[in-house]
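Q: Got a minute? One more chain.
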Amino acid sequence: MSARHVRHTVHVGPEDRATSPYLELPFEVAAGTSLVHVQLDHRRDAGVVDLGCTAPAGWRGWSGGARSRFTIAANVATPGYLPGEPEPGTWAVVLGLHRVPAEGLDVEVEIKLDGAAPLDPEPLAPPVPERPPRRALPADDGRTWWACDFHAHTLHSDGALGVSQLAALAAGSGLDVLAVTDHNTVSHHASLPAAGARYGVELLPGQEVTTDRGHANAFGAIGWVDFRRPASEWVRQVDDAGGLLSINHPLAGDCAWHQPLDVRPPLAEIWHWSWLDRSWTGPLAWWSAWGLGTVPVGGSDFHTPADGRPLAQPVTWVAAESPSTDSALDALRHGRTAVAAGIGDPVLLRVDDEFVALDADGLLLVDAYGRRQVVRGEAARFPAADGPHRLETPLASVVALSP
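A: Always. Here it is, folded:
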């Protein structure tokens, strides 16, 4: 079948971005169309324009600024996009006007219907790595502390690895659970069960709901969350679907959290990889101001090995009956977490009616009111008290958190 081409050429300026950060360019798809291919062109040194797609049956995918093209066909699609026969009707290329210079930006979008097009398939699955021994941590009867990382990306958004490559890295890092949280898409969800089973790690379905005014991770197989809607709707949608929403890196650079909310999510990524100077108490101050009842999680926000920011740094330990997605979400929902710098690093656990500080000799246990006790011994126990506690060095650098 010969290809049909549609071309949109637009000039976008600050006024367009002020009107809406998203611009839709519609096009018609006829019955029997075999594929949709979109190519985006603009001066990348002058501005940032994100790329996505919606169709009559719903959202088809998002690649943000990570890609300049995508293809959708019946059985395959570019990572970040949902495969499926292109349904007839009005589709739209969705442009995110992320950074638009004062003089504006010329943007060209070419849409190819039918014919042949590149697909950018996922890489082949690597061998199964040797897994490090699991760390034995004291826990309540019937539960185990599982090593988790609740923030990571793949080729389905702006990560460098395919789902199988990420799963292999997670297993080799000693993780039991890894939330795969690609930006504004759920296209990676279909690959998670098989890859997780192959590498012996639970790949928890997630998505990072991503906007200019803050990011939030939605955990669970809950369907796609429309990032263009008000953030309070994200909270309600995720809760109604049985998932959990976590505010991400609330103090991080140009993606800090400043979305208004009339209902607050239960989780927050208090410890993000970017908390490099942990004597800086900004994340703790934000947590205190936001609400100490918020359950803390940690996330490496892993994108690529080239960044030098490994998986599981920080690590979130969850006390659960198993490392399954349902058990991990239940542990998060009930605040059974502990966050540490890494899997082998000092950790502070709530076990029965006690705090247990492991591998923390010489550190300080700090309660919610700032009162301190010196930890002595490699498995020191203290009476549990209400409110968040932490371990810190004598020079006040945070080492571990417990809600």
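A: The chain has two domains: 4-113, 144-345.
Q: Perfect, thanks.
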